[in-house]
């Protein structure tokens, strides 16, 4: 086959993606075809692929030296540490993956269902009524609580309170643009050297302080739980404390700390954003919302709810691309990518391929029901693919189903502004531009929420 160079998008044009990610990349696909390249200063050339078939070829490199960890390391290592599923590659990554997958397997987490519903119901009962608020922030409270209680397994109310506050501050400090945009070398020096750590206005100073506070709480939790292993516990930390690799080795305290932070970082904002998008879409597609509400109230099974969740993550994928750093050259769609380049399945466009998803802009859960479901399912990849496929996907999907059900049973939501909220780039995710602004009212039929105190503001 004759190979042609990968078309390259001029940088000023490409940078528009920060303000209009979907529009910019769709225009690039129209102009350059399904494979195109962008070169960001300081990074290897990044080649985006925009069909499911090409994406599968990229995922296949996971087994033969496509590295996902190294790309994430320079941004994430200060937060997640050196022993994280997100940033490891090769044998150390595989060892961790085999230890962490079983506790997050569909069968293992099925036991958490009632507790997730309870956490959601308690949080929803505290939402303001008849006044606008950002739903994404409230969803984040729920998903954080799920991680703290079911992944970390913290039960004691006082320790839970301290960890909740410290973790929220850590996520805030780690997400500051002033820290994220700092080049890795000066950042790591500022984090390590004693004198700059006393300069109060540096973003590294605040980050280092709150990271220390969280670490202290986590190492204390790990020590307590190691000292009194509970054989009946189902939380991830308890199961990891008991897990052994092929050589009979368990995880060290530092490995456990790094993986707990990893599951927090990878699992709580993503799921909250997915939930925020679910309601952003449902409130602008009344017939879908009405059918879902009626089916759930009638006690139907979760087939339609599941299709709504899938269509949400199809039309508004939370993570928009999943890059791999290539160890070897890769032939792709008539082009050759060089070793050392990045190959990135661009999920946001793969999910808008009109060949697979006709009228991709329409919110239509029926795509995932009926005769077209198998084809749609093959091109549906909100959790990435290959061996690096999201380890928390089953948990995320279950959380979304359970929490949507709890919300619909408790309150009637309406959008503050009927115009759709645009996807905005936030780190590696796409979030609703107004964080899903809604107003909540008690359900008219007086189901569970009617018993909750009214707090009209
Ligand atoms: C709607 C919610 C979520 C979305 C959209 C999402 C999406 C993703 C994506 C796209 C990847 C990269 C996959 C790849 O490179 O091919 C990923 C990786 C990962 N996710 Fe999720 N995720 C979600 C929720 C969760 C949850 C709840 C957890 C755990 C509590 C989690 C833990 C992880 C971890 C640890 C990785 C790294 C896996 C590895 O490299 O081996 N995620 N996720």
Helix content: 40-55%
The total of helices stands at: 19
Percentage of residues in DSSP E strands: 5-15%
- Second rung of CATH, namely the architecture: Orthogonal Bundle
- Low-confidence regions: 446-457
Biggest sheet, strands in spatial order? Answer: 1-2-8-5-3
Give the structural class. alpha+beta
Instruction: Tell how many strands the DSSP assignment holds.
Output: 12
Task: Name every ligand kind in the structure.
Answer: protoporphyrin IX containing FE
Rg is 22 Å
In CATH terms, the superfamily is: Cytochrome P450
Number of domains: 1
The biggest beta sheet reads: 5 strands, mixed
Assigned CATH class? Mainly Alpha
Terminal Cα separation, in Å? 67 Å
CATH topology: Cytochrome p450
Mean pLDDT: 93
InterPro entries: Cyt_P450, Cyt_P450_CS, Cyt_P450_E_grp-I, Cyt_P450_sf, Cytochrome_P450_monoxygenase
Organism: Actinomadura fulvescens
Cofactor: heme
Family: Belongs to the cytochrome P450 family.
Structural description of this entry:
With 457 residues, the chain is an alpha+beta fold. The protein has a single domain, classed as Cytochrome P450 (Cytochrome p450), CATH 1.10.630.10. The protein is 50% helix and 10% strand. The strands form four sheets. The protein has a five-stranded mixed sheet, with helices on both faces. Strands 4-12-9 form a three-stranded antiparallel sheet. The chain has a two-stranded antiparallel ribbon with strand order 6-7. Strand 10 (423-426) and strand 11 (429-432) form a beta hairpin. Helix 14 (253-282) crosses helix 16 (303-315). Residues 446-457 have low confidence and may be disordered. Bound molecules: protoporphyrin IX containing FE.
